[in-house]
Backbone:
């Protein structure tokens, strides 16, 4: 899956102030990513607030994204959940034209055992029309995909091509890198650890802050993959504070506030999320004034 090396971005879903989807804003965001040199786009991951979209809205966003990207950049669709049969049904009916792979989060809330996680992915990869990327984010799901389960899935199912790792555990990352089959991609799921994860052997990042600063994130990933770490560290250091602000009040409220300041799209989110506080917005303005647009 060479298309998934480098920097991907977990796109936000822009909303109007009345809560409806802002398609002109989404189109502007897509163009911002492509012109900024992003390597691929992820539509309707966690950052896209997929949990608050209806089934019809999700289909419309996927279709719109594929139409506007028009084959210029690889696309990944986020399709996951904690009802295995329902996830399989969504995958079977997914219009995958224009898409390269599926990103599927580990089942949340249910807290399955490792065998349950294994059986979940075994079932959904059989239903998927495209290669599958695991997504381990225990801070949101309440459970962990162990390195052993990750490697077991990678070895047994050739169409499971990678994992987005947002566990924050370098012990976990190291064990996956040590034991995974050749070609299986370890992808960073946290912006602040992009540089050290690629140094360990990761294929790149699926970024949140890249919504706002695609050129910087794409350049950072490229430099790391080329072992140019002295230059990469400069970008890494430039991104530290704005990334900290991005997540200070949760995702995607922070990055949407940044996008509004940059004139890309509005900052509206859907309940139960709320928008960034005035205090955070002021801190974002101050940091942007100091650093520019990176």
Residues:
């Amino acid at each position: 899956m060479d298309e998934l090396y480098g920097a991907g971005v977990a796109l936000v879903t822009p909303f109007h102030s009345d809560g409806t989807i802002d398609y002109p804003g989404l189109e502007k965001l897509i163009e911002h990513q492509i012109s900024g040199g992003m390597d691929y786009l992820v539509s309707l991951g966690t950052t896209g607030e997929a949990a608050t979209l209806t089934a019809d809205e999700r289909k419309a966003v996927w279709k719109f994204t594929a139409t506007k990207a028009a084959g210029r950049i690889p696309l990944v669709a986020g399709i996951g959940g904690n009802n295995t049969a329902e996830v399989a049904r969504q995958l079977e009916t997914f219009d995958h034209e224009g898409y390269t792979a599926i990103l599927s989060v580990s089942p949340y809330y249910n807290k399955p055992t490792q065998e349950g996680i294994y059986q979940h992915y075994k079932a959904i990869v059989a239903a998927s029309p495209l290669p599958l990327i695991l997504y381990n984010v225990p801070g949101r799901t309440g459970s962990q995909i162990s390195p052993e389960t990750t490697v077991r899935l990678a070895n047994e199912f050739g169409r499971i091509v990678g994992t987005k790792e947002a566990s924050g555990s370098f012990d976990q990352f190291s064990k996956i890198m040590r034991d995974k089959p050749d070609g299986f991609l370890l992808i960073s799921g946290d912006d602040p650890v992009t540089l050290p994860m690629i140094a360990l052997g990761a294929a790149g990042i699926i970024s949140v802050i890249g919504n706002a600063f695609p050129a910087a994130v794409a350049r950072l990933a490229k430099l790391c993959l080329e072992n140019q770490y002295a230059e990469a560290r400069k970008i890494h250091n430039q991104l530290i504070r704005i990334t900290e602000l991005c997540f200070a009040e949760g995702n995607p409220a922070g990055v949407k506030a940044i996008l509004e300041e940059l004139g890309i799209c509005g900052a509206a989110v859907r309940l139960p999320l709320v928008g960034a506080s005035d205090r955070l917005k002021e801190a974002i303005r101050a940091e942007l004034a100091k650093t520019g647009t990176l």
